[in-house]
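Data card: per-record layout.
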Amino acid sequence: MFQKSFSKTYRNVDLSLIWQAWADVSNWPKWDKGLDYCEIKDEFRVGTRFILKPKDGQKVKITLHEVIENDKFTDTCQFVGAIMFDEHVLEETENGVKITNSIIVKGPLAFLWRHLVAKNVAKSMPAQTDNLVDYVRKLK
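The structure for this 140-residue chain is written out next.
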């Protein structure tokens, strides 16, 4: 198993606007600079599937595994011999909104997918989170 998390607390940002940006999957490339496009044809709820196309990568099929509005969501990507969970959590604190993103890869070939995919996704989490907050702040 592989697991890597990133957390940061932001002042002067509205938790509900972050949630709205997360739930607006088709517009993720506006703040996630590592994506060419995302296609979703259903509501942001458990079981919904969508396509995510990373820059310089293959299209990936993603499934929403857990969705708790204004709290957290987890999406999954199935690989041969492994599954990758991408958990996103919001927490209102006295210092601002804490955003935590965790990548978890499980399965007999987790070591392979960690090397091929997960380590790069984990490396992008700090910039991706900062870009999300900058994007949301401009929506006000």
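Known properties of this structure: The CA atoms of residues 25 and 33 lie 14 Å apart. The mean pLDDT is 96.

See the next section for split statistics.
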